[in-house]
Amino acid sequence: MRSALVLLLAVFVSGCHLNQMPPAPSSVSADDVPIQAHLGEGGLRATATVDQDVGLTYGTYSRARSDQLADSIGAIMASTLPAVREIYSDIDAAVAALRPPETLSTVEVGLRDWGKPERLVFQEHVDEVYAGAAVQLDSIYDLAMATATSRALGIASVRSPLDRGVTGDPALDDVLVAFEESMRGMVGFDQLDDLRTEDRGIRTEVIQVFTSFGAEEAEEAMGGRLLLFVGGDETFGRPRCILAFRSDDGTPLSERHLAQVMRHRIMRGNTVVQDLGWRALPTGGVPGVPSTREYGSYLLAESVEPIFDTEAPSFAQLASMRILVDIQSGVFDASGAFLGAVDWRVIFYVSSRGDLTWELSTIDPRWDPYGTELQRVLKG
After folding, report:
1. Does 23 score more than 70 pLDDT?
2. Is residue 78 part of a domain?
3. Which of 53, 103, 138, 371 could be disulfide-bonded to 341 (CB atoms 3.0-4.6 Å)?
4. Maximum pairwise Cα distance, the chain
């Protein structure tokens, strides 16, 4: 950015020497103007005739000054545009470096404010990025206008005390007004706030894809409802998955815990290359039991997504394959008794170049009153 501004200033300074003005029309002495006076019906009249060939007319001279100012302004705008583009490129890079906050797309009223503190912090960071960019754009705009105005004043004729405008020359002032409008458009003052508002609204949406509400005997068996949220960018190799349990019968959430097991099947076409079987979700504590926190009447496990280490040497062996990940997530009471679960599937695709993408299976997540794999793996 600094190099762009230095170049901009250099062009502004050099622009002061562009296109030398042609000489102004020569003055005409009173001695060169014969005066003829005669008496007529309207009184004494005087007519002046100029016999001298003045050469360049004042109209031509005015147009030449306007053209010279326009040339200088063209040089200013040509050198300004790269600097402006660099600032907007810096904005995009700075916002892209921020981790987008998450929001839950759900009908659960108690979860609508989930993630709000993180969203507010994100918006503050975006505001800081745009505030810094606005200062830089203001500086470029002010420098360009000051340089163009100085150039206009340098070529304007001596103004009268009653002349209006910046230079007193209507033609030059019109050029400056047009330049100001062009500069505001090029710098993008009008769109800057719209872009800031758009970037403040960037979110990673995590969508509710399952609720046990309405499932036969689910509410009675669990004393509440089980919820599953999946979201994130499918072109990246890691989905965002959140498991939640809402207590409706007054049972303290401390007497409930969530658990999850997964089965990975590596496929080439429709052929199973390898079946890794059912395994407990890797965690930092008890295998299969993710860390949770209470949020109102909800118990949340906020990171239950399957993860692949794309940096591992063995990952290259998955090129051109897909991986079916079947998942069983459930809730248990304080004694370890199973209460209910949800079965769901995520499919991963590995390209020939090793790019990893994912999608939620078109088979909808299902209520599971038995949790067979959960109980077998966790109790085994």
Report:
1. no
2. yes
3. 371
4. 129
